[in-house]
Backbone:
């Protein structure tokens, strides 16, 4: 989360090309939307038992359990006019990178407005976007595997009596790469096909590939420690 903020500043200052990066979560974590109440959405005591971390995103949307997945983050200045100004159209454009990537492993993925990708009618990717200082920041998850039971053990539901039915419904509505493929793709395998997909979706874009400077690494570490790891940020609602 801290690195996303540093990259927004770097691009705004004209010291970086548009950025595309991929990452995983270790340990498993929950990210909550910027406008959510952490205590209303997440059982933080249960998270502590499992060793699951919690962080508030800069983007909106709902709480997301991050475990067996690949996450991407993309930063593109609006002034480049590569991505449409309208929110729905911008999601559809950016998510072509994921859809084309999944096609490389024979998964027929489709855009499902506003911000999801589905395979066989089931959700395989959720995404969120914000716009800061003239820059689109969008990130999302591509599920490699999914443990719905564990997810609902750490996320709160409005009605505990309906929890079993909700879990059953989610299992029918959510899918993953592992479910739809006989091959066992590694994290890096999925990253590699997504890179190809994004290059195909944005042939005119040269993405940032250099290493961060020592100053930017230090800034990222400071933000992580003094903002994104704090109760003041994560429990602000």
Residues:
């Amino acid at each position: 989360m801290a690195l996303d903020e540093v990259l927004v500043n770097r691009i705004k200052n004209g010291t970086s090309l548009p950025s595309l990066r991929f990452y995983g979560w270790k340990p498993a974590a929950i990210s909550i939307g910027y406008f959510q109440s952490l205590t209303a959405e997440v059982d933080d005591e249960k998270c502590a038992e499992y060793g699951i971390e919690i962080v508030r995103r800069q983007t909106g949307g709902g709480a997301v359990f991050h475990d067996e997945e690949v996450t991407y983050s993309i930063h593109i200045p609006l002034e480049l006019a590569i991505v449409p100004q309208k929110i729905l159209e911008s999601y559809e454009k950016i998510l072509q990178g994921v859809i084309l990537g999944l096609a490389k492993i024979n998964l027929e993925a489709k855009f499902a407005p506003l911000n999801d990708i589905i395979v066989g009618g089931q959700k395989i990717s959720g995404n969120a976007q914000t716009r800061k200082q003239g820059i689109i920041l969008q990130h999302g998850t591509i599920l490699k595997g999914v443990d719905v039971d564990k997810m609902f053990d750490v996320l709160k539901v409005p009605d505990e009596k309906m929890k079993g039915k909700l879990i059953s419904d989610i299992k029918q509505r959510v899918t993953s790469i592992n479910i739809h493929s006989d091959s066992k793709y590694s994290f890096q395998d999925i990253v590699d096909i997504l890179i190809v997909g994004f290059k195909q979706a944005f042939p005119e874009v040269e993405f940032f590939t250099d290493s961060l400077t020592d100053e930017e690494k230090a800034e990222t570490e400071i933000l992580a420690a003094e903002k994104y790891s704090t109760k003041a940020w994560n429990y602000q609602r």
Observations:
- The mean pLDDT is 94.
- The domain at 2-234 is CATH 3.30.930.10 (BirA Bifunctional Protein; domain 2).
